[in-house]
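2 proteins. here.
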Amino acid sequence: MASIGARAATPSIALPALHAAWLAFAWSLIERALILSEQFAPRLYVLVHFLVGTGYDLMVAAALGLAVYALGLVRAFAGRLLGAVGLAALLVFNFIDYRYYLQFRLHLPFSTLGYLQEAGDFISSAQEVVLTWNFALMVLLPLALGGGLVLRRSMRPGTLSPPGHAVRMGGLFLAGLLGATASNSYVAKHLDDPLQFPALVHFLRTRAAARPAPVELSAEVKARWGYREPFYPFLRQRAFEGCVAPPPALRELCAGAAAAGGRPNIVFIMLESFRAAELGAYGGPGEISPRFDALARQGVLFRNHYASGFQTHDGIVASYCSTYPNYGLSILRDYPKLHLRCLPELLREKGYRTLWAHNGDAGFDKQRPFTLKIGFERVIDEWDFPLGTERLGWGVSDEALMVRAVDEMAGLREPFFAALLTMTNHHPYEVPPRFRRHQGSGEYGRYLDSMSYTDYAIGRFFEEARKHPFFRNTVVFLYADHSVPQPSPVPIEGQAALMRLHHRIPLLVAAGWLKQDRVVDDVGSQVDIPALALDLVGHHGPLPWVGQSPLDPARTPQALVSHAGSYWALFTPDGVSIDRGSLSYRDPGVSAEAIRRAGEALLVNRWAVQHDRIAPPAPAGGESALATRRTPPAPAALAAPLKP
């Protein structure tokens, strides 16, 4: 038992505490330096943010050292053990956070704890991260050296008086206080900048963000959105009649839909992490995507299409329900509680059979209850495939999914709506040996190989589908769930180019009757996809959708992208605007009014989700209240053009 008396042993109390503090500070600083190295075109404000974050690093390190010191005054070995365990936990956490940053460009949020109960689904990614040399270099080696330094007992005796203890503890406290004070004086507007918060501070702060404070709309905002009770801000009359007078690029698509009696089969293939920049049809290296590029020469290619969010569940909500993803909630876990009107439900009301197929676990992230809630009659996932089916990464192979999906469609009564979600092109990017062509270039090389494999699987889908009569009357939408922050295959310059790289995704519409290539250059996003599908089958009546079909002559070309609350970006034909605190950017052609309306739309969307005001509930009789509800005209915030 250590004492606070005059004969207290200095090495057993002071040195372990100081060692723990300095090592914790050094390791946090290393992660921050790695994040700094990933920044695009570092400038003065980036370095300022780095220094602000260093203050928080000092605060965390001082807090650990102070805890070690305080416990060591009571029991020396317990203090040293706390230091070693605390260092180990901080080191492992920082490494996990850094790997998360490489995938999503933000720190690990508190909400990820909800996925621990589903850890078996992402064990392949965890194994790939642990079984690497950088894990040994960044975790195991420092842990052995640093933990040993904190735990070992110095051979040099020493004494320290109570005032000496007070001075050392006070110094640690003052260091932490000054670090936090310097940081807090600047950081209020930049809570989500990964350079300004260390991983642990961001993780703890986002605990409250998982259930944000209720959003209140001002009287001015309500007036602009046509407020009246009951208030459903996005609900308005919709008439999907774009095929009456389609633009040239879409005439052949509409003609084929009409030949199918206005009831073509609709297939959505959502491709995991399938970024546009690597595809030959979008100017990327042609050897990565020969099958996609060949399909683009026989279909309609949308060259300026963007993901609405940054994770799979964002793409699901946007492209099935034409609704902005809301980042205050774990989307698929909480959205089933809301009253929505999504494409599968609408098509079922028109006599369509509906199917959702995935080669991963549909239980992950509560995908199964969400897809069933919004109108899919049947869900197929990895557990429905025979034992021995090839597994790659998080589930069975994309090729197995494509072949199985075609078999299922061949057995469905027409018309049908089938939606597929692939998985192989997800980290750890595991592919069969014959596709490993770029393995020497690190993670980006593995990503290219997995894209090439998914491209092969796309070819298998069309190869099998063309063997069946249903394909003649089928429209296939090929698009990605989100982009990825991987390196660019070509040099880029400027914030706008970086945003396009990180958020532009492919959208290709192919059909059994399309034989010539067509290109659409208008800006759009995932919320527009279900609107285009509904234009091909026709719909009249009120809907709470924010997307606009490319066939709508009154459409405002735009894409509104939100990145987990860290920032949001508006893409228009006139340029790009990014709302990110001091890192905000605006191309001169984007008007301030357009930016205001976009930000207001996201705010109103949060309000509507929190208050379950997306769509009215169905009456007791079962028929949707939307079928007969009278609605006001589109609010100015949605209907007004974006150009000044």
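next one coming up
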Amino acid sequence: MLLTCWVLALIAVVAVSAAVFGFAALARGLFPEARSPEALGLGIFTSVLLVTGIAGAYNVLFQSALVFGGLAFLALSPEYWRGRLKDLRRHLPRGRDWLWLGFPAVYFVTRFFSCGLPQQHSDPLYYHLSAPQLWAELGRITITPEHPSFAQAALWETLYGIPQLWFGTRGASAHVITQLYGQWMHMFWGQGGTLLLAALLLARLAPPLERLPGLTVFVAWLCTTQPVFEWLGCLAKNDYVLCVFVLGAVLEALDERWWLAGFFIGLAYSTKVLAAWAALALVVFIPPRRWPRYVAGAALSAAPFLLRNLIATRNPLFPNLDDVLGPHWVSSWWMNHNATFGGGPRFDPRMFRWLSEQMFMKALPKLLLGAGAAAFAVEAWRRHSGKSRETKLAGLHRRRWLVFLGIQFVLAFTMLRPLADGRYGNYVAILMTVFASACVLREAARDRRVWRYGAPVLLALGALVNSPVDVLWKIPRDYWFEPAVHYVEQFHPCYDVQRWIQINVPPKDQVLFFAEKEQFYLDRDWETVSEMKKWDELLTPIKTADELFEVLRGRGYRYAHFSPQAGGYPGVIRPYWNTLVAREREAVYRSPTSLVFKIY
């Protein structure tokens, strides 16, 4: 039953999360001045997992020992959790300030239930979960020529392999447990962590908020649930964890802890290379003489990620620069495909439309940014008219923030392409809306009437954040007591063909998959054909379906899987894709999403 999977997945979530808190206790002892020891503990723990995995110890014995080691750190550090509980009590809302937590509470309860279904988005099923599955089966963390895109699974994904070591890497129920665990971990440590760090940053930028923790959390929640990327929170991905580390770096830089700022940026880069924008922009806050400390911290925390790539491919930046530094595994078709989403700096006027329809889609972020721009203009007028008591240092700080945000905005604007998802600008959008919101709240703090009449308007913005309350009864009613794969059977388009292959095709018979985007539930080895230079070179000279089958037969393959839903995939087979579809009656399995041909 799905309910059984819930229980096992939650046991794993609690065990691993407790271990992270144990490493947070260690981090608090090593760096008592750190603004967020939990975020730092998360980075240290995942780095240890990565280093030991590279060393060939990604197995149930050693990784379980690391988890229990984290639990031991927590048990032996009562002063840590007592201190954190004391901090929590000290910062709890009082009186009517509790009302601000109503919308966020409803949102996260519904988000918890949404994470209780194995969502069908392709990225987790393609590499976020599949790469740790491969690592668990190999017993080490590495990159293989059969799966170049697995290089995108890095620091955070080391946690996704732990339940696969405990519950197995094969079998539908094991896959469901792992996916639910991954979704809850991303929600708790990713989205939840981003919210708390955004609240700390907001209070840092708008000191009046220190007396109103409920309002601070509410506004931070508005800034971190923007429609273009908030849906990522219920997926087993890494986007919100990237935001956690970037916001941690910003907080440490503002407190002039340059080494820790660099350490967090290195963790962010090891999670997702998009952190490079923040890494470059953050030097605005750092005196040049302190840059070596910043760079040293970043180099130390990014070293395991770069070392993994260097050992496996001799290219620390892989899959970037594969055609220059090697190992020449990535197909030209895949590189060209990726270039349509991003690349070198280039101005494209269509990106202005992208900003409106993607990065700042819907009303909520536009309202926050518009109000923030107006408030900042009023602040600037007060300063220049002599009506502000702010020091010159405060004015300089504001200007640095504008430069800091501007650098990241320009990089996102010029390095992404109009076809890219707006979610790739997630932490840039969060930082911009946090700064805008801080401007509004600083200005509102000058006049009690603004607080009195503006609070209901601000509170109403919570209704713009999606909170699907109906999941609270639909999931228990429709899925809890059904088989674990009931939801998967209904909504994962490739699951039927994967199940058919596992039942009807002997393990000794090789199958080549030409549509490999959702293979996590497939219990057999597979290759990402569209990404591999080997297959690019083999398939490019082929002009007909008959030639294709002849080449595959000569290579020992007995079955070939195509996806009418995905179309001609990879691109080299598109010229004769229609001839493949025309032969669907010859397929031994066919559905709206799949065609499987037996190669005699």
